[in-house]
């Protein structure tokens, strides 16, 4: 015996947030809108309208209209908060530049000035309370002053990583101090080498490699910082498998702070444009680090870094299976392949000024197809 199920057709314009139906509600092509006994949200209604859906269908009846707490809209908050930090960030870069220049001239590193940088970063992170804002800040920062910008970005990422690991504040401060002075040995490297418009020769690369030993000497022997701080300078280019420099240390022979520095330093360098190569997309940088992870970096620290950043880091662009282009605005540590994204170009390649924010972990019919380079926006 065949039973015909009667479907009730409801205009989308008549839907209201909080409506609960006794059976599943479907949109076009029987695409599920909400399950039975699940409230419809304003987000559901907006999505239907943006797709041009005029009616939904259900075999059930309207059960009730409940008061629901809508998700907090985060679509612009990270970008807005990042812009608010612009002057703060520039002051950090200026402070590090001043510390490095002062050492180059006088061979003196003033501890209070270093401490001010560390205090500023820690207090601002505690104030803002959203790591994604700082990850985005690192990705959008102006690298016209490469060295101080790189140092500040590495310090920010390292502090965030230390917090994710669960370091107490004393260890966070030691880590941040070491990271902020990590590249001070670079002041001995001629600017002609640092700003070369082509790849370095083996001789020039060997010259740059001396910055680790020179940095340790500057920090510990000349300015009486702790050995723990100095080892970040000395060992941040050592590698888990013993292939790094200057001493080819391996595994736990490398200080814990330097093992953190190795990861964040490598990642930040990859996403930064240099005169002799283009920057990598953040996705490519993560993929490269993960590919080398089992041999080059402490695997336990790398797992925490991957969780913190997600496979698609905040600020990167991706194409969805709908062919829409979206910007990653928040990571999801539980689902690193399914971050929160904001549509910036629709499926026809038209720029969207106030695009929809989508939490991909909750939209199983949507997924990321591939990462998109920033210069490809609007051309794909």
| SSE-based structural type | alpha+beta
Q: Spans of 5+ residues with little confidence (pLDDT < 50)?
A: 71-75
Task: State which percent range the strand residues make up.
Answer: 5-15%
CATH H-level superfamily title of the largest domain: Hypothetical protein af1432
Q: How far apart lie the N and C ends? A: 52 Å
CATH hierarchy class name of the largest domain = Mainly Alpha
Series of secondary-structure elements, N-terminal to C-terminal:
EEEEHEEHHHHHHHHHHHHHEEEEE
Q: Number of folding domains? A: 3
The main sheet orders its strands as 10-9-8-7-11
CATH fold-type name of the largest domain: Hypothetical protein af1432
How many DSSP H or I helices? 14
Describe the structure in brief.
The chain is an alpha+beta fold and 380 residues long. It has helices spanning 42-50, 77-84, 86-106, 111-128, 131-140, 146-165, 169-180, 191-194, 202-209, 211-221, 227-235, 256-270, 282-296, 299-309, and strands at residues 8-11, 19-21, 25-26, 32-34, 55-58, 62-65, 317-320, 325-330, 340-345, 357-359, 368-372.
Description:
By secondary structure, the protein is α+β, with helices and mostly antiparallel strands. It folds into three domains: 8-65, Molybdopterin biosynthesis moea protein, domain 2 (Alpha-Beta Complex); 77-309, Hypothetical protein af1432, CATH 1.10.3210.10; 317-376, no CATH class. The protein has helices at residues 42-50, 77-84, 86-106, 111-128, 131-140, 146-165, 169-180, 191-194, 202-209, 211-221, 227-235, 256-270, 282-296, 299-309, and strands at 8-11, 19-21, 25-26, 32-34, 55-58, 62-65, 317-320, 325-330, 340-345, 357-359, 368-372. The strands form three sheets. The protein has a five-stranded antiparallel beta sheet, with no helix packed on it. It has a four-stranded antiparallel beta sheet with strand order 1-5-3-4, with no helix packed on it. The protein starts with 7 loop residues before the first strand and ends in an 8-residue tail after the last strand. The model is unreliable at 71-75 (pLDDT under 50).
């Amino acid at each position: 015996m065949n039973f015909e199920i009667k479907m009730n057709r409801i205009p989308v314009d008549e839907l209201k947030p909080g409506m609960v139906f006794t059976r599943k509600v479907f949109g076009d092509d029987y695409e599920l809108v909400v399950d039975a006994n699940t409230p419809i949200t304003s987000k559901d209604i907006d999505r239907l309208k943006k797709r041009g859906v005029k009616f939904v269908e259900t075999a059930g009846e309207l059960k009730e209209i409940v008061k629901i707490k809508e998700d907090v809209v985060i679509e612009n908050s990270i970008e807005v908060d990042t812009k608010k930090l612009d002057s703060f960030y520039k002051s950090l870069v200026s402070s590090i530049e001043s510390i490095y220049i002062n050492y180059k001239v006088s061979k003196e590193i003033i501890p209070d000035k270093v401490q001010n940088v560390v205090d500023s970063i820690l207090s601002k992170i505690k104030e803002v309370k959203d790591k994604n804002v700082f990850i985005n800040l690192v990705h959008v920062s102006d690298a016209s002053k490469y060295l101080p910008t790189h140092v500040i970005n590495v310090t920010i990422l390292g502090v965030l990583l230390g917090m994710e690991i669960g370091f107490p504040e004393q260890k966070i401060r030691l880590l941040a101090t070491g990271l902020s002075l990590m590249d001070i040995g670079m002041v001995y490297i001629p600017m002609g080498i640092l700003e070369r418009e082509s790849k370095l020769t083996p001789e020039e690369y060997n010259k740059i490699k001396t910055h680790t030993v020179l940095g340790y000497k500057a920090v510990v022997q000349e300015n009486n910082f702790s050995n723990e701080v100095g080892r970040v300078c000395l060992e941040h280019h050592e590698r888990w498998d013993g292939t790094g420099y200057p001493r080819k240390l391996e595994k736990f022979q490398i200080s814990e702070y330097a093992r953190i520095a190795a990861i964040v330093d490598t990642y930040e360098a990859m996403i930064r444009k240099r005169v002799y190569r283009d920057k990598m997309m953040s996705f490519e940088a993560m993929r490269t680090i993960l590919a080398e992870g089992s041999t080059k970096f402490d695997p336990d620290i790398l797992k925490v870094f991957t969780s913190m950043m997600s496979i698609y880091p905040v600020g990167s662009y991706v194409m969805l299976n709908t062919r829409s282009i979206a910007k990653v605005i928040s990571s999801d540590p539980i689902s690193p392949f399914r971050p929160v994204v904001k549509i910036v170009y629709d499926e026809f390649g038209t720029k969207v000024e106030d695009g929809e924010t989508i939490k991909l972990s909750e939209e199983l019919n949507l997924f990321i197809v591939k990462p998109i380079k920033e210069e490809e926006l609007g051309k794909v």
